[in-house]
Amino acid sequence: MGNSPWGFKSPLAHNVFPRDLSPRRRRRRRRLVVPLVAALLLLVLWAATSIRSDTRALVEFFDTAQLQAEEQAAAAASLQAALGDLRDGDRDMLLTRLQSIHAGLDESIAAMEAVDVPPDGIGAAHLFDLALDQWQLGVEAFEPALLAVVDEPQSERAVEELGAALQELRVGDLVYLRFLSESAPLWPELDVETPPSFPEVAMVPATLTLSQAPTRIAVLARANPDLRLRADLRLSQVSFEPADVVNPDGDRVVPATDTLAVTVVVENAGNGDEESRSLTARLESEGTVVAVEQMQTEALAPGSSTTLSFPAFAVMEGSSYRLELRLSIVEQEVDVENNLAVIPFIVNARP
């Protein structure tokens, strides 16, 4: 009967599905394989590009971090110099140094925030940012604490706050050391000729004992009179309108007028910020008070000044006057004489 299961040559016994489908299958395989290979190539290309991109980002991060670390190493040296000058330095120089360190930390923090950090560098970046933040906290606390130590000689709390500020700085130093140890294994991945070379940064020298340092610093600072707050707001210039002249007898003479405008320049000649003070103008003629006016100065930083213009005073031709300008005094004022100006003058008569 042959190999036919039907037992006869049935017209239904033909092969319904062609046996030789290999050309069609090969075409179908090619249609499947080509996109797969292309996808794999794209994946490999993307991975290589991503790796190169991450490497470049890591190099940029370490370059920026190294530059900012060098800035902070210089800041640490400046802080050590400031501490070394406590015996014979002055308050202005000390504040200038501390404010410069604070500004440098702000710039370093901003520079690191602008850098893209790849996944491999996130841990190192977090440690470096934390070190900068701790140094910033320490410097922010150190300045007012040191000034309080000087300005409040009997205050033990000021010494404690100074110790807390030094502790913040020391924590920043320790976090920076941790950053160096955590980031060193990443340097071989940078594929650069010269690996990063980070400086030593120690805002507080490791040899300084924190339990003793605040008291030692306080003793040095309190022994230096140039570090103490000197409040000195002074009357630096007084002018009239119309302008006066000095006659041969040495008297100040104002041209004939019925009104007199008075302008006063007040200067902060001390070494600390000054809050607003009152300035009183008292005009007398022949022992009689003619007018009293009062104005407020603005807050003044050391070395700055402000100009106050009083409302015009009514005066009479041919009369003699005495103008008294008095600037209010604060407790720590070192020179009270320059807070007072007494100006006698004559208003000329018309011919």
Notes on the structure:
There is one protein chain. This protein has about 350 residues and is α+β, with helices and mostly antiparallel strands. It contains five helices and ten strands, in the order H-H-H-H-H-E-E-E-E-E-E-E-E-E-E. It has a six-stranded mixed β-sheet, with no helix packed on it. Strands 1, 4, 7 and 8 form a four-stranded antiparallel β-sheet that branches. Helix 3 crosses helix 5 (about 215-220). The longest helix has about 60 residues, at about 20-85. The protein starts with about 20 loop residues before the first helix and ends with a strand.
**What is the percent of helical residues?**
40-55%
What general form does the structure show? elongated
* Total strands: 10
Could you spell the SSE succession in H and E letters?
A: HHHHHEEEEEEEEEE
The residue ranges in which pLDDT falls below 50 over 5 or more consecutive positions are 4-8, 41-51
Largest sheet: 6 strands, mixed
Number of alpha- plus pi-helical segments: 5
C-alpha termini separation: 159 Å
Structural class: alpha+beta
Spatial arrangement of strands, main beta sheet:
2-3-10-9-5-6
- CA radius of gyration: 41 Å
Strand content: 15-25%
Q: What does the average pLDDT come to?
A: 86
